[in-house]
Every structure is written in C-alpha cells, then in structure tokens.
Amino acid sequence: MGKELSVLAVVMFLALAGCTTAKGSFCAISSPARLSTSAVDALSDAEVRAMLAHNRKGQALCGWAP
C-alpha cells in the first residue's frame, strides 16, 4: 500500500508541474506594440482595438510612454 501511495503522489506532482505559467509581471514580460504607419493601415479594427488596449494597459501598469 505504501508503494502505491508513493507512485500516486509522484504522478500527482508531475501532473501539477505541467500546470505552471510564465513567471513575471506584465511589465517584465511585455513591451509596447510599435508599428509603422503602413503596418497599422493593414490591421483590422479589432486588431487596432486590441493593440491599443495592450499599450494602454502598459501605460497604466508600467509607465510606458505613448
């Protein structure tokens, strides 16, 4: 019974180890999105909104300059 419990514990720890995420804050792992004018012209409205949201979050949390 003790060996089966040890094997079960190892399997559970291995399963949990696969659930980790990247370490670090948003500011440590992100950077501002800066595109050329022609690249911005090629974006859809939804992509522009997502990029603006990302950059505004960086301004608020990390002090990124516009």
From TrEMBL:
It comes from the Bacteria. Residues 1-22 form the signal peptide. Keywords: Signal. This is Lipoprotein. It comes from Mesorhizobium shangrilense.
